[in-house]
Write a structure and sequence with these properties.
Elements lengths: L4 H13 L13 E5 L2 E4 L4 E9 L6 E6 H6 L6 E3 L13 E4 L7 E6 L5 E12 L4 E12 L1
């Protein structure tokens, strides 16, 4: 049995007209930042970073990671919850520890490696709705010398 095309179009309009938006803000209304955005550390030193976000309509889910580690292995991005033990190996670009919070501002501590170089700590805030999500990231550039 074939349904007329007009009937199918009508059903489609009814289904999606009542759905409304996803409840997420528009991407250009949301901003995130990390302070300090750049700093210089001695090998083995640490710095406290603060991630901030504005424009979210509900509390975002927070994540922190080391970009260089993330690029090498997404399963070991060297971002750890403060309830976890610090890594003994596997984080040649340093690591970051943060609290499992769902609000901003969010603080994290970056622990520099013993190897000089330039590293990037990424802060991500994500808002999740029923069928959609919105994520924004910002980075801090850390020079170890």
């Amino acid at each position: 049995m074939r349904l007329p095309l007009a009937f199918l179009a009508f059903v489609f309009v009814l289904l999606f007209a009542g759905c409304g938006g996803s409840g997420l803000p528009h991407s250009n209304q949301v901003t995130v930042s990390v302070m300090p955005s750049q700093t210089t550390l001695s090998p083995g030193a640490s710095v406290i970073l603060t991630g901030q976000g504005t424009g979210f309509t509900s509390d975002p889910v927070i994540r922190w990671w080391i970009e260089e580690s993330h690029d090498l292995d997404r399963t070991n991005d060297c971002g750890f919850l403060s309830s976890q033990a610090p890594p003994q190996t596997g984080c040649p670009f340093g690591y970051v520890m943060y609290s499992p919070v769902e609000k901003v501002p969010s603080s994290a501590t970056y622990y520099a490696p013993s190897t000089p170089g330039t590293y990037h700590v990424t802060f991500e805030a994500s808002e999740v709705a029923t069928f959609d999500s919105l994520s924004k990231t910002a980075q801090a550039t850390i020079t170890v010398q």
